[in-house]
Amino acid sequence: MELVSNTQRSLNTIKITMKKKFYLLMTILIPFSYGMGQKSINQDSLRKDFKLLKEVLESYHPGLYRFKNPKTVERDFKLSEQEFIKSKDLKEAYLSLHRATTKIQCGHTYPNFWNQEKEVRIELFEKEDKLPFTTNIIKNTILINENLSEKKITTGSEIIAINGIETRLILDELKRYRRLDGNNMNKFYANFSLTGIGKYEAFDIIFPLLFPPIENHYTIDLKSNDKYYSVKVKSVSRKYRSDKLLEKDSSFGNVKSKLWQYSFLEDSIARLKIGTFAVWDMKLDWKKFLNDFFSEAKTKKSKYLLLDLRGNEGGLMEVYRELLSYLTTKPLEIRRYDKYVRYSKAKEIHRPFLETWNESIYDLTDEVVQNDDYYFEFKDDTYKFFNIVPNPYAFDGKIYMLINADNSSATYYLGNYLKKNKLATLIGETTGGNQKGTNGGEFFMLKLPYTSLEVDIPLIGYYPIDKAKDTGLSPDIFVERNLNYFYNKWKLNKDLDISAFYEDINLKKNQ
After folding, report:
1. Per 3-state DSSP, what percentage of the chain is helix, strand, and coil (rounded to 5)?
2. Which of 5, 33, 236, 405 has its CA 20 to 30 A from that of 275?
3. Would residue 166 count as lying in a domain?
4. Domain-embedded: residue 286
């Protein structure tokens, strides 16, 4: 049970079991009036789907009452059901389902883009209705990074309105679909910025469903250098945008092995960039990669390690445990967050609608014991601690870790352990995730039989042993993401996080 995030792990990678075959047959036999496109959805069918969703969340979700009490959660369910059963088509049902899961305030609970059926993805996600830009969002501002349209638009231009709708109003609506732990809004701005990397991004999914192009075009009101102007740009597919980005930069792409890089800079600085811990489908031998890097750093007698984890949401806990062994020169006993589940065995009535990559998670009877009215805890107390034995090539100099709002799962926990044990200086912005804990570890993928929509349900709740705040992890050296930050990044090709690193090591040298 070491997996923290399954964001991009598709159901297509899971071998179809007899249970799955039974489910597929059953959904064919269930009578309903739902269809793709503009066909209507039967209200009774929607009500049954929502009833199943509510039952599954109440039975298995370990963080349902982390940020809200049961009375508030019940009220949210009632309001969400009223919205859901009014859905007239697939688009409205998907959006309503997304809003319902957002209220749970769990970053791992949502109708996962990658896990929807192919027909749903084609109908909702893969049309030529995207903006021809990459962007960054800071508070109520959308800034254009790469312009892939046929119009001349300067990097750093601010979008004032789209199709006559103010950016502020657009972002207010998008926030109803945020995927956050608690009220840590930093993750929203990271999630809804557009990089163009990968198959799906939240802005590309939600924005066109809410604010579709008009006759295949968007009218964009812009501000650049205190001048205001408007352009009309053609909407594009995500593939078109990616191809254009590749034309501009041959290194662009979503090859995961490229997200792992290292170099040795001047003044005895070793730099390690790890863009993901989701290594299950990487061709790179990541353990050998780490060993090679740290052994070379030792040979070169590097004094400073610049560990860049910006943009890394998480993945396998095994990766950060392995990485930790290179980041401490002394044995380390780490107190984990307490780990709870809401069930001991999945109910038979739910089994046809639940998929998972770990069959053993259906039955935890021999592994857990009732803790209170809501939770079960694992019998094996050894999970409460894990011991890190230093690697022979463990780095013995000064460690700096670059963080940002994307760090919300395994990378959040790594940063937290490094900071608590004074192993590294953290530089950047406040992370995603939450000090009150998160949910993950193992997942059920719930397939609603009438709409065919899927929802990810995390199964293990991680809770801190001490009282904690509803916020992410704060850096030791804060670098605000503002207009100046992106001006330096795009116009001057200057990384202010790395500048802060150099300022700190130079200060220490002078001292």
Report:
1. 35, 20, 45
2. 236
3. yes
4. no
